[in-house]
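Progress note, sequence design subtask.
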């Protein structure tokens, strides 16, 4: 009989949320990745036995795959560096999409292996290992995809170095729409084009928006959420990587979105709503714009996932 192992799920996530570059993100209900972890009787340590759904694009080398980098960091920390574990990664979301694909794999992998080893750590204690996995994909240390994928909800990383995080209370009735045009934008490249400095004026405005967004969420003030859901720094620099971004964003706002911006490093575009019907109409409109330009697009409509990763 095959060893069923332990299977974990981790969801897609929207990082930045317009005004919180590298420090704010929320989890979607779907899509998400699955990872199965099994004890193995070879002596090769950690191995990737199978990856499905990646069209052969992801590294099979355990030193390069986000899932195994994260798990190896966990094993090293536990003093179990040479424990033999086989991982099977089931990718259910596109790569280079702005949906937090690499974070989801890293999170699902550490959650599965932690359980396989008798759950020595709580979910929140797994965060640093998953962040190291994510860092191996884009070269930067940020937890704005990994933290919501692991913990669920809208998460503010108050201090990236120490990974101190806070869960932001959410209003009832918030709906997230993410439209993914089928083009690939690698996070590493989307980070390279960002100017390293920002004017004091823009910094002030963006800080005011971040404060307004958090307060709007806490006070269920949809008007304040809408006014604050703006990215004055990163979106203007990255929008050129996403064909027809302006047109698609305008359609979202016209259909009643509270706000709309780039999901993570793109090319996905997210919008928030306080009404499911409006979100459904916007999903159709935004996808149609891409289709009319000859670009395939998929829309994901979801309430905010409050649970994050789980054992299946
Ligand atoms: N905050 C990151 C970025 C998210 O925008 O580059 C992508 O992983």
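Output:
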């Amino acid at each position: 009989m095959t060893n069923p192992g332990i299977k974990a799920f981790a969801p897609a996530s929207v990082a930045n949320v317009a005004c919180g570059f590298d420090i704010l993100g929320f989890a979607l209900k779907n899509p998400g990745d699955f990872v199965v972890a099994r004890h193995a009787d070879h002596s090769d340590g950690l191995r990737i036995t199978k990856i499905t759904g990646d069209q052969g694009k992801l590294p099979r080398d355990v030193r390069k795959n986000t899932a195994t980098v994260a798990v190896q960091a966990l094993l090293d920390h536990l003093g179990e560096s040479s424990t033999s574990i086989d991982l099977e990664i089931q990718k259910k979301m596109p790569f280079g999409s702005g949906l937090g694909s690499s974070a989801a794999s890293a999170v699902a992998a550490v959650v599965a292996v932690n359980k396989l080893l008798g759950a020595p750590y709580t979910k929140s204690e797994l965060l640093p290992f998953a962040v190291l996995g994510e860092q191996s994909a884009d070269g930067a240390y940020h937890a704005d995809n990994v933290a919501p994928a692991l913990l669920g909800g809208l998460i503010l990383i108050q201090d990236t170095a120490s990974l101190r995080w806070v869960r932001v209370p959410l209003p009832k009735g918030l709906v997230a729409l993410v439209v993914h045009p089928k083009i690939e934008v690698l996070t590493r490249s989307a980070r390279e084009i960002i100017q390293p400095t920002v004017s004091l004026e823009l910094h002030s405005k963006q800080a005011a928006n971040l404060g307004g967004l958090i307060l709007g969420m806490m006070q269920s003030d949809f008007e304040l959420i809408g006014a604050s859901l703006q990215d004055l720094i990163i979106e203007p620099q990255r929008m050129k990587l996403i064909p027809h971004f302006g047109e698609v964003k305008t359609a979202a706002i016209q259909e009643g979105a509270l706000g709309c911006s780039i999901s993570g490093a793109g090319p996905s575009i997210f919008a928030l709503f306080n009404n499911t019907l409006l979100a459904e109409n916007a999903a159709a409109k935004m996808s149609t714009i891409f289709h009319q330009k000859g670009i395939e697009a998929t829309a994901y409509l979801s309430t905010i996932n409050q649970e994050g990763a789980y054992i299946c």
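The pocket of L-homoserine is lined by residues 15-16, 21-22, 138, 142, 144-145, 187, 190-191, 264-265 (CB under 6 Å). Work on this subtask will continue into the next period as scheduled.
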